[in-house]
Specification:
single chain, mainly beta, 7-stranded antiparallel sheet, 12% helix, extended
């Protein structure tokens, strides 16, 4: 019996969609990583502890892109900062956004999608300037989020 042909996904071919933000051309995105804690219970006389799942956790996602005149992501970060300082709307519905990382094939067709829910920026990096460099200026943002799931 012949096996099924697997098509491995290209790492470099992806898009990022963020509700309400038009920013394009991200150079890096990720990692998407979740984990589950372990609750251990030691019972008298048992040689091994009983283990069960604890709390779920999701690590921050970092997005990187070449600096342009766009301030959309910085403005999103400023909105969160203002909410934290009590100078802006503290309602999470105003700054939490859903987003997706979309995997593409070489022709640009969508072949996979990871939906990310309740994301907001906790850290923004405007850049690292260096007169001796031959590189473009890169901006970065670290996003906290509630959870992710595949949509394919």
């Amino acid at each position: 019996m012949a096996g099924r042909v697997r098509r491995f996904r290209d790492k470099y071919k992806f898009l990022v969609e963020i509700d309400g933000i038009v920013q394009t051309g991200f150079q890096k995105a990720g990692p998407l990583r979740g984990s589950v804690g372990v609750i251990e219970h030691e019972e008298g006389g048992a040689l091994l502890p009983d283990k069960s799942p604890g709390k779920g956790r999701f690590e921050d996602i970092t997005l990187e892109w070449g600096a342009t005149e766009s301030l959309e992501i910085y403005n999103w970060f400023a909105q969160v900062l203002n909410a934290a300082q009590g100078t802006g709307g503290a309602d999470p519905d105003r700054y939490k956004r859903n987003m997706a990382i979309i995997e593409q094939d070489r022709a640009g067709r969508e072949v996979g999608r990871w939906n990310i829910y309740g994301a907001w920026p906790r850290e923004f990096e405007a850049g690292d300037w260096d007169n001796t460099s031959e590189e473009k200026l890169i901006r970065k943002v670290a996003l906290v989020y509630d959870y992710f799931e595949p949509a394919f």
